[in-house]
Design brief:
about 160 residues, mainly alpha, two-stranded antiparallel ribbon, two-stranded antiparallel sheet, 4 strands, about 10% strand
Length: about 160
């Protein structure tokens, strides 16, 4: 079996609807993809309180990142007068797509960037899993018992210490 051409298998663009227009974000170059991965990993390490390579998070590394991840869509958005929050949301969505996948990017997009909307609350998790069970859990099966030990069928009395 021969491999199919990769461009036939991958949908290598994002289509982001903003203010009545859909912007197409092309797949980034390998260089931009690798740099985006490094920045996101460094940001995660920093968020966890770890030490980060200063060079990775430098201003030079971040300069033009939104332009790079959005590709031609960046200039179209600026030309169309898209608001800064919308452009930023599109760029971060593209970064999530680059670093993870299209499904993660869609979740980020739909959350409007609100982390509370990304992690479903307890009620939503329960409704997806069928809710809390009313079945009581069985007692301990660890092999221990609270009944007094017996010797040949006779209960032993309490021992004094």
């Amino acid at each position: 079996m021969a491999f199919k051409a990769l461009d036939e298998l991958l949908d290598d663009s994002l289509h982001l609807p903003v203010a009545g227009r859909t912007y197409t974000v092309p797949a980034p170059s390998a260089e931009v993809g690798l740099r985006t991965q490094a920045l996101i990993n460094a940001a995660a390490v920093a968020a966890d309180g770890g030490r980060v390579d200063e060079q990775v998070l430098s201003d030079a590394a971040e300069r033009d990142l939104y332009r790079d991840v959005l590709g031609a869509a960046h200039d179209q958005m600026v030309s169309d007068g898209v608001s800064w929050p919308a452009l930023k949301h599109c760029a971060i969505t593209a970064m999530v797509w680059i670093a993870q996948d299209k499904t993660a990017a869609e979740r980020f997009w739909e959350s409007a960037g609100d982390p509370n909307r990304l992690a479903p609350n307890r009620q939503a998790r329960r409704s997806r899993s069928g809710g809390a069970s009313s079945t009581k859990s069985p007692g301990s099966t660890s092999g221990t018992s609270t009944r007094p030990a017996t010797t040949r069928g006779k209960p032993q009395g309490k021992r004094r210490r």
